[in-house]
Amino acid sequence: MKFKIAEIGILSILCYIFIFTLCVSAIGIGVNPAKLELEIKNGESIQKNITISNPDNIDLVFHVYTDDEFNDWITIADPNFSLGPYQEKDVYIHFTPLTEKVGTFNTTIYAVALNPNSNLKLGSGVKIPVNINLEKATTSFYTNPVIIVLILIALVLIYLSMRYRRNS
Length: 168
Fold this sequence. Notes:
Strand order of the largest sheet: 2-9-8-4-6
Number of domains: 2
Radius of gyration: 31 Å
Number of helices: 2
CATH topology of the largest domain: Immunoglobulin-like
Mean pLDDT: 81
Oligomer: single chain
CATH architecture of the largest domain: Sandwich
Low-confidence stretches: 20-26
CATH class of the largest domain: Mainly Beta
Strand content: 35-45%
Structural class: alpha+beta
CATH superfamily of the largest domain: Immunoglobulins
């Protein structure tokens, strides 16, 4: 009987230690929009923004980044910043596809919040899915190099024919 009471006491102490001393509180992060859908033509550039917010009552450090595969396509303005309690910030993201391929490309933008005062270096993060629909760029009539060359040739021929008529 004494052994059972001692066993329950030890088990109670271990439960207390595991439950109350090993708890880690997580920090929050808010992101808007939760997903980006883009339609871009080859050679074009587009800018979107996401709003990062700090819903906690402590100062947090934020890091915004993307998959390494798309580092050449996606530029994040001010990817590392701090926010005070309940503050928010617009982060501008520039998309400039560097390929002649057309189709749909999927990537992710990551936003991570860290507590700079924590010794554990733990944080929380959000994944923002990005779907890029890359379309073939159409060349306008007046910017098509072939059309411009034909127009210049026609103008030169008209000039030469008018000059030839004056001399005859």
